[in-house]
Amino acid sequence: MRERGAMVRRSEILATESVACLNGALSHLQNIWEEIGIPEDQRLQRTEVVKKHIKDLLDMMIAEEEHLRERLKKSIDMCHSELDTVCQELNVTPFKPVHDSTMLQLEKELRTQLEVLIKEKKERLQELKCLREKDEDFCDILCITPYSIDTDFVPSINQLDAYRQYIASLNEEKERRWAEFVNIKKQIIICMDELDQLPETSFEKDVICEDEEAFCLSNENILGLNTLLQQLEIRRAQNEAKSSELRDQIVNLWNRLQFSQEERDVFAVHMTGSRATTMRALQTELVRLEELKLQNMKNVIEAIRQEMTFYWEKCFLSTEQRQAFAPYYDEDCSEDLLQLHELEINRLKKYYQTHQELFEGVCKWEENWKLYLALENKASDPNRFTNRGGNLLKEEKQRTKLYKMLPKLEEELKVQIDAWEQANGSQFQVNGQNFIAYVEEQWELHRMEKEREKQDRQLKKNKQIEEEMLYGSSSKTPSKRRFNGPNTPGKVRKPGQSLRTPGRSATKPPRFGLNERNKENVSHLNGIGMAMSGASTSITTPQRNLSINSVATTYSEFAQEFSKASKSSCQSRILNSTTSNLHT
Fold this sequence. Notes:
Helix content: over 70%
GO molecular function: microtubule binding
InterPro entries: MAP65_Ase1_PRC1
Low-confidence stretches: 477-559, 565-584
Region (Disordered): 449-518
Strand content: under 5%
Shape: elongated
GO biological process, one term: mitotic spindle midzone assembly
Pfam families: MAP65_ASE1
Structural class: mainly alpha
Mean pLDDT: 77
Distance between the termini: 139 Å
C-alpha cells in the first residue's frame, strides 16, 4: 500500500510538472510572438493550433491506454473461461485469484495458471497416448480386449495410475506366458524327438517351426500347448511302460534261458530309452527269445519254478496253497504247461506287488522277532557276565528297544490286515495261519518257554542248596593272580588259624534290563560271602539273620549284598595282613 501511495504522489507531481511545462511553453510562445510582433488574431490562431496538437496527442494517448485496458479485460475474461474449462477437464479445483490485485496482476496470475494447467493437460494426454499404444501391443500379443478408458477426455491422475498398473500387470502376464511358452515348447521338442515324430497339424507347425515372437500368447494357445504336451507325454509314458515291459520280459527270458553276461551285453545298447527304433529292436529280440524258449522248454519251466518258489516265500503261502498249483509237479514239459507256469508266476508277481507293503511289514516283524528271541537267549546265558567289551549293555538296550517296538509294529500290521481283509473279503494268512493268531501264539510260546526256564533254574538252585546243607559249600573263586610289583612281607599263620586263600577284588555286577530276570538272581547268604571274598569255610565272617531260603528280590538288593560281602572280605584281609606284619 505504501508503494502504491508513493507511486500516486509521484504521478501527481509529474502531472503538475507537465502542466507547469505546458504553461511555460505557452508563455515562451507568447514572448516569441510578442518579440516578433505577430498580431493578436494570428496569436489566437497559433494558440489554437498548439491547443489542437496537444489535445490530439493526449486523445491519442488516452485511446491507446483505453485500448490496453480493454485488451486486459478481454484477456482476463478469456483466461477465466479457459481456466474453468481446463480445471473441469483436469478435475481440479478452480483457480481463485487475490481480490485486491490489479488488472495487470490478475491477468498475469490467470495467464500463468492457465499455462501450467494446459501443460499438465498435454502431459496427461501424451501419457494416455503412450499407455494406449502399449495396451494395443499387449492386446495383439495376448489376444485380449483393450482397456476401457475414454480417450476423448483428459484422464484424471487416478485413472492414469490405474491404467499404468493395468499395463504393468499385462507386462507381467506377458512375461509369464512367454516363459511358459518357451518351457512347454522345449518339452514338446524333446517329446517329439523321443517319439521320432514331426509336426503335423498347423498348430504344431506354428509352435515348432515359426518364429517365437510371432506366436500369439493367448489363453487358448497356452491351453493348446499344455494339451499337446500332455498328449505327447502320455504317448511317451506309454512307450516307456511298453519298453520297460519288453525289457522285463527279455530279462526274464535271459534268466530262464541262462544267457551269459557277454550275450546280454551285445544287446545292452537297446536296454535304455523308448524311441521307436529301440522299441522295434526290443520286440525283435523278444520274438527271438520266445522262439528259443520253445526250443528249451524244460530249462525254462525249471527256471520259472525256482522263481515261483521265491514268490511263495515272499507271499508266505502255506504248503496247501503251494500244492494247489498242480502243474508245478507235472514232469511232462509242453507248451501248455509252460503257459500255465507263466500265468501263475505273473499272478504271483501281481499279487505280491499289490500287497508288497503288507508283506514287507510281516517280514520286518519276523526279522525283529527272531532278533528279539536271540537277545533273550543271550540274556539267559550266565556266561554273558564275562563280557569286557561293553556288548552286554548294547544288547540289553537293543532288546528293550525291540520289546517296545514289536507291539507297535503289530498294531500297524493289524490295521493294514483289517483293511486288506475288508477289501478282499477273505482272511489274511501267513503260512496258512491267521497272522494275528500266529503272533499271539508266538508270544504265548515265548512266555511258556521263559516260565519253563525259570522253573528249571529254581529246581537247580533248590537242589544245590540241599547239597550245600548236606555236604557244605566250597569256594569256587579262583585266587587272584600276583602282579609284578615289590615283594610284601609274608603272612604268618597263627596256631589254630585256618589257611586263607588270597581274596579277589569285587567287580561291579552288570545291570539287567528287566525286573523279571533280576528276581532270578538268587543266592544264599553263605554262598555270597564265600564266593565274593574267597575265604574258606573256617573263616568267621559277619552274618545276617536271614533264612536259608532268602533270596535277592531285585537287582539293587543283589548289588547291595555283593558290595557288603566284598567290604567284609577286604576288611578281613587287611586285619590279617596287619597282624602278620606285627608278628614279623
